Amino acid sequence: MDTITTFIKNNKAISWILGFQLFRLLLLPFMGLMPQDAYYYLYGQNLSFCYFDHPGMIGYLLRFFTDVFGQSIFAIKFADFVITSITLLSFYKLASYFLSKEKLQRAFVLVASTIFISILSFNSTPDVPLLLFWTLSLICLYKAIFEDKKMFWILGGIAMGLAFHSKYTSLLLQIGLIAFVIFSNKYRKLLLSPWFWLSLLISAAVTLPVWYWNYQNEFASFAFQTSERTSSITEFKFSSKYFFGAIGHQMFLLLPVLFLIFITFTFKYFKRALLRFKIPQGKTLFLLVFFIPTFVGFFALTPIYWVKLNWMMPSYITGIILAGMFVTKKLLKIQIIFSIVFHVLFSIQILFYVAPIKSDDTWVGWKELALKTEKLQQKDINTFVFSDDNYKTSACLNFFMKEKVYAQNIIGKPALHFDYLGDDLSILKGKNAIFIDSDKRFKDNEKLGEINPLLKTYFKEVIELKPIIIKINKNQSRKFWVFYCTDYQPKK
């Protein structure tokens, strides 16, 4: 024990890492349920090879942790924290193949200090397992390529396949691997290696359950992830808001120092390739092929498309290793200062909720809403509850309430994976319902004063009730419109 204590004291990098992770762990019990937590928990409670909007890995993990630790918000957050902690350790192992001891420690502090690691530790998204299997894939591919260990071609294929079960953007792993082999002078011979092709074949084989689910469901998940976005991109409408919004998001996730290092070395390598026709080789090329397609590729779309803040996260793994080659002690200190300030502000918001959030993407008010909704439902035991905001309110109420809560498919609208739960809506015929609708821009306590025409189509009578007001720290923070609907008539 004394040896471990001495090691930590003499190793400032490890001290910083443990400090950041301890901070995150201590904050876990104070985190409320996010809509994403509730929705992917719903995945796990309805096991399937795939789901409408994503593959199922995050749902499987949440199912495992809640089965072991019980259905609670802490169990869900603890799952995110544990998986992300394993990702950090895997990052350290991967980075050790490329960096000297001093630079390795700097890279480790860089990644642990970021906001994106905190987000992954607190919020359930497909990116949580994606980052883990992405990193494990790179470890296996490194050993297969640079250490010529054949077994790791097989393990790498399995890891890439599991990454696909996390999120479809993991296909950039296979693209990066193929790009490395093509552009590498030394390793281009791998194109003739059966092990290289076996790895790709295994990665494809592991993904077959996802393909099978899509085949059974008219490729709904693949279509959802591609068709709408492709049509938006092909419209080619320039927007400075998208571009500068992406920059703001990335500076927030990485913090300004690390983001600027990313921009600097990206410019450096592109300049060398375009002006001197020199493509980096060896280990540097390996890092770049798993960075550039994701980071630069998505950034190239930002002037014409709203790129979500988490899409570039996989590029951070090798990007931060590259940054470790360039970051100085002074820049690292500035990064840590930024990180401490942001994390202190973040903890104040979590603990005291000082700044109201005008959005449903918040961790406050859901349990209170469930309690108030149950009281309303008790007044008429023949009622069911539903909402219409894609998944957020319905998923959160499903987590907290004993009775099943439905989504907007009740009134004939597409409802993401709620459409694939196998619900027989005909059993609700003739029942009354309570319709909950969030007022995201909460300004007053008044009723909405109008009724969604679709409600009148599916119900005999619709009456607006007094809105539900949620108080946080004695302040009115959230508002939900409430409608009592009679005699449900589902359409055939």
UniProtKB/TrEMBL annotation:
The keyword Glycosyltransferase applies. Its EC number is 2.4.-.-. It is found in: Cell membrane. This is Glycosyltransferase family 39 protein. GO terms for molecular function: glycosyltransferase activity. The chain crosses the membrane at residues 13-34, 74-92, 104-122, 152-183, 195-213, 242-265, 285-305, 311-327, 334-355. The keyword Nuclease does not apply. Its main location: membrane. It comes from Polaribacter ponticola. Coiled coil: none annotated. It is an enzyme of class 2 (transferase). Keywords: Cell membrane, Glycosyltransferase, Membrane, Transferase, Transmembrane, Transmembrane helix. Residues 53-213 form the Glycosyltransferase RgtA/B/C/D-like domain. It is a multi-pass membrane protein.
